[in-house]
Backbone:
């Protein structure tokens, strides 16, 4: 007997629904929606969701808050706490997050997960505890202003007591089954470490200085370079006033194609950064597009292009098409797609536009980029970053990166974990790693371990590294490459979302890799007959870890410091709880010798 109630409220929409139970504990409600002007408004939403007069549907869900400790969504960041139902509403659409909420208990088990099949249009969402009853109140409003034909909307509710991560991963598979196009495939190069110019150089770059970095990066195991903001302008003030023309700054890059050829000669791939929506007020094309904007940001000195104009979309697509062809690029880093949204000054739809809804136009833009560039390079790499990480975006991109979080290992860890839960087989990358030139090797190692379950992006000036710093970086780059199948594509089991994943396991075939980020946590190692190799990474400053062995076994035990040097070896019989000395930022290797 389920403890939830779903109420469908409509305005100018005729909604018929059917209910199915694809498996015990899962309920799917499918609505068939059709515009009907005679249907009166029945919308009575939470106070923080504004009432609208246009056609819309609102689902109001009430669920007994029994045993619920926290709430997860793809955009949770470092906050997993429950809130009141008076909290401000959030908006979800193609370029902002994804329509799923998971409420979990203190053990990280799912209590109640709700997801919608609408992954493109604007959805206004609010979810919180109703103080008067101790129930969860969830309101999900979907405007349908241009509904011309019957449109389906499915609501999936999962009450199974399973690890929350498994339930969320199943939602991602459900979206994949519903969407007509397959996710963009990932070339193997997308799963190998990359060098990024952003934190190391920002906009102050030249072809000679970067080439020196590439030569060192490839020797350390990095297989691609991302040339970030700065290649297109001589202005190094960090603004976007000169974006839009997208021609290399000649004083920095006299011959951009030759620069890319140098990268290829090293055996590396090359991706180039673009801020997709921005057109700077100082750019040569400003006069052409200044009347085709969603809004203008005076602090950025840039307008936000309106994709509802066919001219805007064609300009952007042809710009990227020309760059990939002329410079022989291997990929693009497409930035700020989440800036495509409504602003106070956003103009209403008019005859000069061919789309009424912004997100429909964004879809048309992104599918156009994908189709035309893939004809040129079938193994193209396209990077997106949080928050434009939803299921539709996986059709247009194959690399999903954590949002900017310089020096924050915990933000990278949480971001990588959250992205992996909804990204299926797409590649998940860390935000670029950087550190102070005087940073201790063990603290660099801890930051690397925080990112180890994603693809490592590195953004430090490599010629400034001390010998110990370089050795730490080389060690964990090598580890991430050797064990990438386990780390990136193995069965992924993050523990305790309320505590921001203090222990994470990944396993594949006979190997299990566990990372521990809280010295007070006991790491219970998965144990069965198939596993013979274990790695336990110490992602905290403590000098020992407490491990739990469910059954007795004999192991070859090797301890390594943060630079990968072996500090101790033994053969031990292990069962129950064991505290084992492992240096901060170091690792422990266990090989079963009784199997």
Residues:
């Amino acid at each position: 007997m389920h403890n939830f109630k779903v109420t469908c409220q409509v305005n100018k929409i005729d909604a018929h629904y059917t209910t199915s139970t694809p498996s015990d504990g899962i309920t799917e409600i499918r609505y068939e929606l059709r515009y009907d002007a005679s249907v009166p408004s029945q919308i009575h939403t939470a106070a923080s969701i504004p009432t609208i007069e246009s056609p819309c549907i609102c689902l109001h869900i009430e669920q007994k808050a029994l045993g619920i400790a926290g709430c997860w969504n793809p955009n949770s960041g470092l906050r997993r706490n429950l809130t009141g139902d008076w909290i401000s509403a959030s908006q979800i659409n193609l370029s902002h997050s994804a329509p799923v909420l998971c409420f979990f208990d203190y053990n990280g088990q799912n209590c109640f997960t709700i997801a919608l099949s609408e992954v493109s249009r604007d959805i206004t969402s609010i979810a919180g505890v109703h103080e008067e009853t101790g129930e969860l109140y969830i309101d999900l409003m979907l405007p349908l202003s241009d509904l011309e034909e019957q449109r389906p909307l499915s609501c999936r509710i999962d009450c199974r007591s399973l690890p929350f991560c498994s339930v969320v991963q199943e939602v991602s598979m459900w979206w994949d089954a519903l969407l007509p196009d397959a996710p963009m495939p990932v070339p193997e190069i997308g799963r190998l470490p990359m060098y990024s110019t952003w934190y190391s150089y920002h906009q102050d770059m030249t072809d000679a200085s970067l080439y020196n970095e590439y030569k060192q990066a490839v020797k350390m195991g990095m297989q691609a370079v991302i040339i970030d903001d700065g290649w297109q302008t001589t202005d190094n003030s960090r603004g976007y006033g000169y974006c839009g023309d997208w021609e290399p700054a000649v004083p920095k890059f006299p011959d951009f194609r030759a620069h890319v050829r140098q990268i290829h000669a090293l055996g590396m791939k090359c991706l180039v950064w673009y801020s997709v929506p921005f057109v700077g007020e100082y750019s040569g094309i400003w006069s052409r597009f200044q009347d085709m904007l969603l809004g203008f940001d005076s602090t950025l000195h840039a307008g936000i292009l309106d994709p509802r104009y066919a001219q805007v979309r064609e300009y952007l697509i042809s710009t990227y098409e020309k760059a990939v062809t002329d410079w022989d690029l291997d990929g693009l880093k497409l930035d700020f797609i989440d800036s495509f949204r409504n602003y106070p000054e956003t103009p209403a739809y008019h005859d000069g536009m061919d789309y009424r809804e912004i997100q429909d136009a964004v879809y048309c833009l992104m599918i156009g980029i994908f189709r035309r560039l893939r004809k040129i390079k079938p193994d193209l790499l396209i990077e997106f970053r949080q928050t434009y990480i939803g299921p539709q975006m996986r059709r247009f991109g194959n690399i999903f990166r954590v949002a900017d979080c310089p020096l924050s290992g915990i933000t990278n860890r949480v971001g990588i974990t959250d992205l992996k839960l909804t990204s299926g087989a797409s590649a998940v990358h860390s935000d670029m790693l950087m550190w102070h030139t005087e940073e201790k090797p063990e603290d660099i190692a801890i930051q690397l371990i925080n990112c180890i379950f994603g693809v490592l992006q590195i953004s430090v000036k490599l010629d400034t590294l001390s010998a110990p710093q370089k050795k730490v970086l080389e060690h964990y780059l090598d580890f991430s490459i050797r064990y990438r199948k386990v780390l990136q594509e193995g069965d992924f089991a993050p523990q305790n979302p309320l505590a921001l994943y203090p222990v994470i396991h990944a396993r594949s075939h006979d190997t299990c890799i566990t990372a521990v980020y809280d010295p007070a946590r006991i790491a219970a190692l998965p144990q069965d007959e198939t596993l013979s190799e274990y790695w336990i990474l110490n992602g905290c400053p403590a000098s020992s870890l407490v491990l739990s062995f469910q059954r007795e076994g004999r192991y070859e035990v090797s301890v390594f410091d943060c630079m990968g040097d072996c500090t101790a070896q033994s053969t031990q019989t292990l069962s129950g709880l064991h505290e084992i000395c492992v240096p901060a930022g170091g690792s422990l290797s266990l090989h079963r010798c009784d199997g």
In short: The longest strand covers residues 544-560.
